[in-house]
Every structure is written in structure tokens, then in C-alpha cells.
């Protein structure tokens, strides 16, 4: 009994890991994840843009890039990708820690199951508004620009009408302008890249233009982080007897397993929100042909017309990308926070 009481006293005396340390652990994890997964992202992009059948598959694409451009070419675009993940994970981990502190019981210092869910949801909402939505549009714009450039011929030209500038959402404006730019040479395109396009939209239409269609993104990210943080904690407790803040540092391979399993929960839970987000962002509002009037209407319409399984379209590619990334990120983050606990507790 005495040993158990001493152990409980030690746990009570341990200082909780501060939010800034959680943010640092997330940012370091994001950098490592970006370095590990960037070659996959480069190969994916090359395959998506390959309209002439140059690449015969994933391995052939990777080997071709290495032979023709060198190994370093597989890490092209690492800086923006790493910056995105660093900012996203720093905000996610730091804000989740802050929300957890707010939801803890003042007397016992314990965090309830509901408090953990709400903390994750709050972190996901904040991440969606500050980081994800603007980057989603930047990526969408960049992909559309690349497709437009690949389809262009120098001779044909079409003008952009002034009425399009007054369109209501960022993607609507970009989508229509890109469609009307068909036939222009890349040098004559009005939008030179995602950053230039975003700054032009802000200058002409205001900052809120970058957050058009944020509702399904907020729901997707909020639900995803609520599920992921809760699942990670539960898996650590069940598999490794690791409780948050107990001072125990699990092995890197254990963090990898927990992170991978937790990373599978989010995409399964958020499939409908992800499908709806894509549908709402892709539809044109320039004419009277708007199919989906909002998030709830889109879910209902897709279910009625295409069936329940349609709400989880694209789940397999997400499961191939997200769980490995979460495994890497949590492996690094757990070691960083574990080092802090050992050194300062």
C-alpha cells in the first residue's frame, strides 16, 4: 500500500507537459514526416499529371525521375510541404493541449472522455480555419493551373469578363477564370501560381474569400482530430499501459503502431465530410446549375442518388496516405515529449 501511495503522489507532483512543448513536438514530427513522405507525394503528382503515358507505374515513375533528374528531384517542393505540416501539427498539438487544460477537472486534474473529445474537436476546428482551408485552396488552385497549362495551345485566347471578378467564392472565381484561360500560353496566364492567385483574391475580394466552403472542412478536421487524439490515448493505454502525463516513455515502434492505428480512425469517421467538401468546392456557381446548396443538402443528395457507400469514396487513398504520416509524426512527437518529461519531471 505504501508503494502505491508513493507512486500516486509522484504522479500528482509531476508537472503537465506545457502546450508549447506539445507544439514543438508536433512541428518536429511534421518536418520528419515531410522528409519521409515527400518522394511519395512527388511521384503521386507526376502520375496525376502524366497524360501521355510516360510512367508505367509507381516504381517506374520513381526510377525514371531518379535516372533523368537525380535523387534530389524526389524531394522537390519539400519546403512548402514541410512548412505546411510544421505549422499544422504545431497548431494541432499545441491547441489540443490548451483545450485539454481548460477541460480538466479543477479538483482532480483529470480529463474526462468527453473533455478529450472536445479538445480534439476544438483543435481540429482551429486547424481547419487557420491552416487547412487556405492550403486546400492553394493546392486545388495549383493542380487546376497545372492541368490548364498542360491542355493549352498558344493560338486560342479568351477574355475574362468583369462580371467574374464579383463572383462569391474563391474557388468559383478561380475555376471560371481558369476555364476561360483555356488556350492561353503559360506566360499569359493571369494567375502565376497559388500564392499569386491567393493574394489577388484577397486584394480584389477580401480575406474572407480564402475561407469559402470552410464548413465541411471544419467538420472534417474537428471530427478527425477528436477521433484521432482519443484513439491514440486509448490505444496507448490498452496496448502499452501508457497514461498521458505518467512519465512513462514508450518505444518508438510502439508509438508508430499507436499512431498508425489512430490515423486510420479519422478517415473512416470523416469520409462523408471529405466527399462533401470536395463536391462543394468543385461545383460551379456561375450559372443556375448549383446541385448542392450546402453541407447537409449535399450529404442527403449523395445518399439518395448514389447510395451510402458513395459518402466514403476515396477512402482507400486516404488510408494509404494518412496513417503512415501519423505513425511517423507520433513516433517523433512522443520521443520529444518523453525527453522533456524525463529531464524536467
Structure in words:
The chain has helices at residues 2-13, 19-49, 58-69, 78-103, 113-151, 162-165, 170-180, 194-205, 214-240, 252-282, 295-306, 315-344. Helix 2 runs antiparallel to helix 4 and helix 9 packs antiparallel against helix 10 (252-282). It contains twelve helices and no strands. Mean pLDDT is 76; it is low at 147-184. The protein starts with a helix and ends with a helix. The protein has 345 residues and is an all-alpha fold. It is globular and about 60 Å long.
Instruction: Summarize the main sheet.
Output: none
CATH class membership: Mainly Alpha
Gap between N and C termini = 23 Å
Q: Based on helices, strands and strand pairing, what is the structural class?
A: mainly alpha
Low-confidence stretches: 147-184
In the CATH hierarchy, the architecture is Alpha/alpha barrel
Using only C-alpha atoms, the radius of gyration works out to 23 Å
Would you list the SSEs in sequence order as H and E? HHHHHHHHHHHH
Overall pLDDT level: 76
What is the total domain count?
1
Number of helical segments with 4 or more residues: 12
Shape: globular
CATH-defined fold name? Mitochondrial carrier fold
Helix percentage range = over 70%
Number of strands: 0
Task: Work out the strand percent.
Answer: under 5%
Amino acid at each position: 500500500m505504501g508503494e502505491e501511495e508513493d507512486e500516486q503522489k509522484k504522479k500528482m507532483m509531476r508537472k503537465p507537459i506545457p502546450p508549447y512543448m506539445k507544439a514543438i513536438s508536433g512541428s518536429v514530427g511534421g518536418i520528419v514526416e515531410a522528409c519521409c513522405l515527400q518522394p511519395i507525394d512527388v511521384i503521386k503528382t507526376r502520375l496525376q499529371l502524366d497524360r501521355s503515358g510516360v510512367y508505367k507505374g509507381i516504381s517506374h515513375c520513381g526510377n525514371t525521375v531518379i535516372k533523368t533528374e537525380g535523387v534530389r528531384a524526389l524531394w522537390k517542393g519539400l519546403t512548402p510541404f514541410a512548412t505546411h505540416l510544421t505549422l499544422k501539427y504545431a497548431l494541432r498539438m499545441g491547441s489540443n493541449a490548451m483545450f485539454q487544460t481548460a477541460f480538466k477537472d479543477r479538483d482532480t486534474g483529470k480529463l474526462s472522455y468527453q473533455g478529450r473529445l472536445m479538445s480534439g474537436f476544438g483543435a481540429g476546428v482551429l486547424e481547419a480555419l487557420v491552416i487547412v482551408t487556405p492550403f486546400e485552396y492553394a493546392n486545388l488552385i495549383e493542380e487546376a493551373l497545372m492541368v490548364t497549362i498542360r491542355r493549352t495551345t498558344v493560338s486560342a485566347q479568351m477574355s475574362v469578363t468583369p462580371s467574374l471578378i464579383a463572383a462569391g467564392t474563391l474557388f468559383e472565381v478561380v475555376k471560371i477564370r481558369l476555364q476561360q484561360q483555356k488556350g492561353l500560353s503559360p506566360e499569359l496566364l493571369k494567375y502565376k501560381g497559388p500564392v499569386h492567385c491567393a493574394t489577388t483574391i484577397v486584394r480584389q475580394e477580401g480575406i474572407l474569400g480564402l475561407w469559402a466552403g470552410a464548413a465541411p472542412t471544419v467538420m472534417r478536421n474537428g471530427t478527425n482530430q477528436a477521433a484521432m487524439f482519443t484513439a491514440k490515448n486509448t490505444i496507448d493505454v490498452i496496448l502499452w499501459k501508457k497514461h498521458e502525463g505518467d512519465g512513462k516513455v514508450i518505444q518508438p515502434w510502439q508509438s508508430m503502431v499507436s499512431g498508425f492505428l489512430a490515423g486510420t480512425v479519422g478517415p473512416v469517421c470523416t469520409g462523408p465530410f471529405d466527399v462533401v467538401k470536395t463536391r462543394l468546392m468543385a461545383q460551379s456557381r456561375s450559372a443556375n446549375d448549383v446541385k448542392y446548396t450546402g453541407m447537409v443538402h449535399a450529404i442527403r443528395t449523395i445518399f439518395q442518388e448514389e447510395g451510402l457507400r458513395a459518402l466514403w469514396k476515396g477512402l482507400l487513398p486516404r488510408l494509404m496516405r494518412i496513417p503512415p504520416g501519423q505513425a511517423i509524426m507520433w513516433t517523433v512527437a512522443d520521443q520529444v515529449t518523453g525527453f522533456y518529461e524525463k529531464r524536467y519531471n
